[in-house]
Amino acid sequence: MRLSVNPKKALIGDPINIIVENAQRDEIVKIRVSATDQSGNNWVSEASYRADSEGVVDTSKIAPVSGSYKGIDQAGLFWSMKPETENNLYSPFVVMPHRIVSLIKDGKVLETQTIEITAFVDLERYEVKEPIKGVLLKPKEINKPSPALIILSGSEGGIKEGWAAIVASKTRMPTLALAYFGVEGLPKTLENIPLETIGNAIKWLEGQPYVAKGRIGILGASRGGELAMLAATVFPQIKAVVGYTPSGAVWQGIGIKPSPAWTYQGKAFPYLRVISNEALDKVFFEAQQKGEPYYSREMYQFSLAEQKSAINGAVIQVEKSDAAFLLIGNPDDGVWPSYELSKITIDRLKAYNHKKRYELLSYRDGGHIFVVYPYYPTTIRKFYLPTIRVWEGLGGTAEGAAMAAKDSWEKVIEFLNRELNIEN
What we know:
With 424 residues, this protein is α/β, with parallel strands linked by helices. It has helices at 76-79, 161-171, 196-206, 223-232, 278-290, 297-306, 308-314, 338-351, 398-420, and strands spanning 2-6, 9-11, 17-21, 28-36, 42-50, 57-58, 66-67, 82-83, 98-105, 108-118, 123-128, 134-139, 146-152, 175-178, 193-194, 211-221, 238-244, 262-264, 267-268, 293-294, 324-328, 358-361, 382-385, 390-393.
C-alpha cells in the first residue's frame, strides 16, 4: 500500500488530500493524524476505511467504517483531533505546526508523512506600537494601494495575530491585528473602550502607501463583532463588516461593576446590563465548583427579557454605516443567543432599506464560534475564564462547529474580496 498526502505545506484552512493506493479490494485500512501543540499536548484522530474496487481509499470520497468522525468529510481527520489530556488546555486555540499522517494495517504503522501547517504565506510582519498597538501583516507582492482589514479580539482581549496572518495570507490584503484592551498601555479590562482606537487604526492604515483610502474591512468575534458593527456606524471608511456570533445590541463592559463597554468622544453608548437571579447564580457557582462548563446563554436571555424597554436604545444603529454586513449567529450558541442578537442587526438593515448587502449565516450545531477556518480541531467546546474562575461552554458540537467553519470561511473570503474590491 502507498500513502499520498498533499500538499506537504498548507495554509491553515486550506484543503488537505489523503489517499491510500494499492490496497486490496474491500481491505480495511486505518489512517491516523497526530500532532503536538505549543503546550506539549499530544493530539490524535483516526479512522478505518474500506478500500474501493480499485484498492483506493480517498478520504474526500468515502466515509469511514469507524473512527473519530462519521460521513464523507475530507476535513474529518483534522477537525476531530482530540488531546490525549486536557490538563493544559485553557482555550480552543491551539498551535500545531505539523500534522503527522500515518497509514496503519493490523496495528502496524506502514508509512508516515508530515504536513507543515502555516499561518504565514509570503507576508511581511510589522509590530506597531504608536499611535496604535497591534501587528500588521502585509502580503509581499503588494505594490499599489490595496483594501485593508482590521481583526479584533473578543472578550479575551489582546492581539489576534494568528487569525490576522491567516486572513492576510488568504485574501492577500494588508491585515492589522488591533489591540483595544488587554495589552500594556491600553485598558486592562473591556470597559470604557474608546472607539477612537478604531479611528486611529483606520487613519494609520490609510497613511500607508500600500493601503487604499475608504476601503477598510473589519472582522470581530463575539464582543469584537459587536465592536466591529458599532465602529462601522461611526467611521464611513469601513465598507465591510464580518461578525462571528456577535450582538446587534450593546452590552455592558466586563469588570467588577456594571460600566459602559464603549465610548465615543467621551460619551458612553447606551448598553444592556447582564442580569442574574438566584437560580442562575446557583447554576454558575455549581459549574465553578465542579469545574464543569458554564453556559451563560440563559443569563443573557433572562437579561433581554428583563430589559425589553431598554433594548431599542441599546441597538446598534447600523443603518448609519456605509458597510456591507456578513454575520454568523447560531441558535445553539452556549455563550449568548447570537442568532437572535445578530438578527437584530439584519432586521434593522432591512427595515431601513440599507443600500449595501447584508446576510446572516446560521448553523444549527455551530455553537459560539472560536475556530473560524476548516481543517482545524473543533473538539474543545469550552475555554477558561481566569477572572471568574469558570469554564465557559461554547455550545454546539465538534462536527457542527467544523461544518460551520468550512461553509462560512469560504463565504467570508468571498464577501471580503467582493465588497472591498469595489471602487466606492
